[in-house]
Inverse folding.
């Protein structure tokens, strides 16, 4: 006998690993693992010895890869009639098609023998391994390589099919009474010829209700399959063709061929209350349009089904894109601080310079000015940029300016606790917290059960709303009343990495007001670098900052503790513009409320307030000594806030998840959305998701069932390549109103 050609073991181990399956080295020409601890091995291809055999670790470690091992000729002969179809079938020359491969989450190893103890068929799962090509059998025969992708089936269904196959083999061997075993594919017989029988069956299907998504569609389709296979006794192959041509076009959405085959398989193997052929032998043909009795088909209790329209995909909010650079300019003090920052920074970043300058103006004017509606300049600003994109320079510049005018004690860095924020504002009523990596704080709030993190969020919410009132300090046991903070003024300038920030948010954060209180600005790509410069703070900037530090509105010796902020008036045009903006925000709020969109109502409910705060800041930046909120200030504030509100809603809908599993689903769809033609091969997507194959397959199954994902197969020079593509439904969610 000729020796087989040397096999490329490592390349096939890499191939199997890319598909989510772990391999274990076996002794050459043997089924035995080379190591005793093989069940815990997760080896890379490089460590496999040349010339060794390889086995695939089955079950949970390999994403629930399962092998149905057909151990006798009868099982191989009858397998097509009993087992679910799968393209993944392997064997060796003397025992072809003896292994059928599936993905069956939760499957357990089960062995089926006849009365003499001879093995018939075995489900091999967790704790087992199966030899695969390019291994060599002890007799010298080559094993087939596992090239095709196994079908995904429910574990209980696979177990039932395998048991039915084992029972059929036992019957074939004459070891039990055949009357107790149901035949898988009984042939139609009786009064009518085959053509007339099929016409009767088609008429019966026409009288049956179609399947609709969300309206017990699985049971309806199973009933139709049962009527054909069990009621009329039609061969499964013909029953599938009739189901595809006569019933499926009326379903919404139509079933795939694979799903219909599954229904036929279920109808074949499941026990039924009525005798085989009861529609063929006893029932006259029902005319189309007449309701038929389906109670005998359902494996579940009969219930009243109310037909509802299938759920339409909810469109994504419109994406306005990042804020135009023309809106990142505010005349006067803010523009001067921005220009100085951009001139000196190693990596000039317009968005970060803008956020830093606005936050500086906001803290300088804290407890000193207000608009006619008693809105203050306390803002929560968040700049989103990647690492080393110039986030640090604006913070340093703010600290430098405040230090030169004697306000260094107004600056804080991190939120240690809610009590820490309160104590800081009790000592210094106007504070600027410049917090980097704020997404880490939000992750802690989101995932931790520590009440300390919850207190931070609660304090941030309350301080924002208390800027024009009094905040009572917490009481301590055994202590006198702690007092109050009069008009606490908290300004936050936070920075974070874009995707990390939105992923750190939870639905609760979106609806409790923290998200709505923030103005979020995205930086996009990092700008070109320049040589950093050491420049003194321009005199105009320092003089304006000193003027704000010395400005004490009100009268009396308690002006620092109980100030009376100066009112910055509106002109008539600004008043009308701001009023119109308020009405528009109220209309958007009403629309969100009608759609039961809790995030939309929360965010749009804060738009008018945010707009008036920014209009006030625009006015005092342009002229600190005699400010007025005019049409220019109002228009700028309206454009900035409405644009950022729509952008925030879009980003939240794209990234924020209701639970960790939903978050992974969104992340997977985001990978596909950015891919060419919104399609990626299996191995590429699995690598980019950086997760276990088991979890990956759960994500894929969920998205397929939701209608957001299609599994595709592309022909290549070698084996067919499996891939994934976003569906039109998912694209509609992504595109939303922006496609109109």
């Amino acid at each position: 006998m000729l020796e087989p050609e040397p096999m490329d073991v490592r390349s096939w181990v890499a191939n199997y690993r890319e598909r989510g399956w772990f391999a274990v080295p076996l002794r050459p020409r043997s089924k035995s693992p080379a190591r005793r601890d093989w069940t815990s091995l997760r080896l890379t291809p490089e460590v496999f010895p040349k010339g060794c055999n390889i086995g695939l670790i089955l079950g949970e470690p390999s994403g629930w890869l399962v092998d149905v091992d057909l151990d006798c000729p009868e099982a191989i002969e009858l397998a097509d009639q009993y087992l679910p179809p799968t393209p993944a079938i392997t064997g060796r020359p003397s025992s072809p098609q003896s292994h059928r491969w599936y993905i069956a989450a939760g499957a357990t190893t089960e062995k089926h023998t006849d009365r003499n103890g001879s093995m018939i068929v075995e489900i091999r799962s967790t704790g087992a391994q199966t030899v695969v090509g390019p291994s060599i059998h002890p007799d010298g025969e080559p094993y087939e390589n596992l090239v095709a992708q196994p079908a995904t089936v429910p574990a209980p269904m696979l177990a039932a099919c395998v048991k039915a196959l084992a029972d059929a083999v036992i019957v074939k061997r004459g070891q039990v009474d055949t009357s107790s075993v149901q035949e898988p594919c009984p042939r139609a017989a009786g009064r009518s010829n085959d053509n007339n029988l099929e016409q009767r069956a088609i008429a019966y299907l026409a009288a049956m209700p179609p399947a609709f998504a969300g309206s017990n569609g699985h049971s309806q389709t199973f009933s139709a399959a049962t009527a054909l296979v069990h009621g009329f006794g039609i061969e499964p192959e013909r029953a599938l063709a009739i189901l595809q041509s006569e019933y499926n076009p009326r379903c919404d959405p139509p079933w795939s061929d694979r799903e219909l085959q599954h229904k036929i398989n279920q109808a074949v193997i499941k026990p039924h209350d009525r005798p085989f052929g009861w529609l063929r032998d006893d029932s006259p043909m029902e005319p189309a349009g007449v309701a038929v009795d389906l109670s005998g088909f359902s494996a579940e209790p009969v219930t009243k089904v109310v037909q509802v329209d299938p759920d339409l995909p909810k469109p994504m909010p419109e994406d306005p894109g990042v804020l135009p650079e023309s809106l990142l300019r505010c005349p006067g003090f803010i523009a001067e601080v921005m220009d100085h920052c951009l001139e000196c920074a190693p990596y000039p970043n317009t968005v970060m310079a803008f956020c830093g300058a606005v936050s500086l103006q906001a803290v300088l004017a804290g407890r000193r000015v207000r608009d006619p509606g008693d809105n203050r300049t306390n803002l929560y600003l968040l700049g989103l940029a990647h690492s080393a994109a110039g986030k640090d320079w604006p913070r340093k510049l703010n600290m430098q300016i405040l230090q030169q005018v004697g306000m260094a004690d107004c600056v804080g860095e991190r939120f240690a606790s809610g009590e820490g924020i309160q104590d800081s504002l009790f000592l210094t009523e106007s504070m600027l917290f410049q917090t980097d990596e704020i997404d880490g704080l939000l992750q802690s709030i989101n995932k931790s059960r520590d009440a300390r993190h919850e207190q931070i969020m609660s304090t941030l919410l309350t301080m924002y709303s208390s800027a024009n009132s009094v905040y009572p300090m917490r009481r301590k046991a055994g202590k006198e009343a702690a007092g109050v903070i009069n008009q606490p003024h908290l300004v936050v300038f936070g920075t974070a990495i874009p995707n990390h920030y939105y992923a750190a948010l939870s639905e609760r954060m979106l609806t409790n007001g923290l998200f709505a209180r923030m103005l979020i600005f995205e930086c996009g790509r990092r700008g070109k670098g320049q040589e950093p410069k050491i420049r003194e703070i321009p005199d105009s900037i320092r003089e304006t900052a000193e003027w704000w530090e010395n400005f004490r509105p009100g009268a009396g010796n308690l002006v620092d503790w109980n100030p009376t902020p100066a009112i910055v008036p509106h002109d008539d045009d600004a008043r009308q513009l701001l009023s119109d903006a308020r009405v528009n925000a109220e209309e958007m709020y009403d629309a969100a409320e009608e759609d039961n969109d809790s995030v939309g109502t929360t965010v749009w409910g804060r738009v008018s307030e945010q707009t008036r705060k920014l209009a006030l800041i625009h006015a005092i930046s342009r002229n600190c000594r005699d400010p007025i909120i005019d049409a220019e200030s109002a228009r700028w504030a309206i454009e900035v806030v409405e644009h950022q509100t729509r952008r925030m809603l879009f980003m939240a809908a794209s990234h924020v998840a209701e639970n960790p599993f939903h978050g992974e689903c969104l992340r997977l769809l985001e990978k596909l959305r950015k891919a060419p033609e919104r399609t990626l091969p299996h191995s590429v997507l699995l690598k980019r998701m950086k997760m276990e194959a088991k979890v990956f397959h759960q994500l894929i199954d969920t998205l397929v069932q939701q209608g957001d994902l299609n599994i595709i197969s592309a022909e290549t020079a070698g084996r067919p390549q499996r891939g994934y593509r976003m569906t039109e439904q998912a694209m509609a969610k992504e595109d939303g109103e922006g496609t109109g």
